[in-house]
Amino acid sequence: GESVGLHLPTLSVQEGDNSIINCAYSNSASDYFIWYKQESGKGPQFIIDIRSNMDKRQGQRVTVLLNKTVKHLSLQIAATQPGDSAVYFCAEISNTGNQFYFGTGTSLTVIP
Amino acid sequence: DGGITQSPKYLFRKEGQNVTLSCEQNLNHDAMYWYRQDPGQGLRLIYYSQIVNDFQKGDIAEGYSVSREKKESFPLTVTSAQKNPTAFYLCASSIAGDTEAFFGQGTRLTVV
Question: What mean pLDDT do residues B78-88 have?
């Protein structure tokens, strides 16, 4: 079966610092990898995705890095703000394009 | 406003009763999904549907049932056969094969 997991369940950073959230995956055949943000009591929201043939993709204050050699995905958040406090999930789409598989999540706390 | 709506937000049921969770979307998405989230856990796929009148089991379908009679609606029934139904249930929809899934606000089901 497929599995997506995270190295660290919790992460605390000072406001203004950069955050790095890591994720390991096992299915080499996934076409896309995605990061979602879930605030307390809400559903997850899409942040950014990266296609499996790319190494890096940048968004607004976020960068996703994909290392296919070691099956590792990371989300970098620049100048972390209090509003970034949430649980972050990595996810992958199966190569059939039919299912999203989510990791356990990392809880990010931004310290003012 | 386009979006995906889950109702109710909180639901209490007695053990042994079936309960149906509502999920409606007006995004014209073909694909819809149901996930279960337990505390400190990731999202686990219960059922998904790529098109009206068709749906597929996810990883934890036992004790659940769904229907997809209309494109806009994908209700989930938690049956008495589900041994541990207390959880946070999330519905999502997407353009089939797209990386961005749109989630509802979730329904927190408590069985007493």
Answer: 93
